[in-house]
Task: inverse folding
């Protein structure tokens, strides 16, 4: 079972609104950019109703990747379902990815 990304016990954790806003600022489609000083290719797909987003990014010339489904719930809540990785890895990528274009 997955939970919304907000964790009241983690003082430094970003809130759902910050995560959702950064994800919403990402344009659908493929783009390259930087994350943690490394080049990544990232693809974001958005469902027709805008409530589901699929993110897949991989380090260009490396082995790292990020993959997740994100559901935009009622009341501006976000349900993050990472694909076989910690939620923190996905959140850090979304907040730190800087597109080249």
Result:
């Amino acid at each position: 079972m997955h939970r919304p990304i907000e964790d009241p016990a983690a003082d430094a954790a970003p809130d759902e609104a910050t995560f959702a806003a950064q994800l919403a600022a990402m344009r659908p489609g493929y783009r390259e950019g930087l994350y943690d000083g490394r080049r990544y290719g990232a693809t974001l797909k958005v469902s027709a109703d805008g409530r589901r987003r699929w993110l897949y990014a991989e380090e260009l010339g490396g082995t790292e990747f990020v993959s997740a489904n994100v559901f935009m719930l009622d009341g501006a809540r976000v349900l993050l379902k990472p694909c076989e990785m910690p939620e923190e890895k996905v959140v850090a990528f979304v907040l730190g990815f800087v597109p080249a274009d």
Summary: Residues 17-99 form one domain. The helical segments are 16-25, 87-96. The longest strand covers residues 38-46.
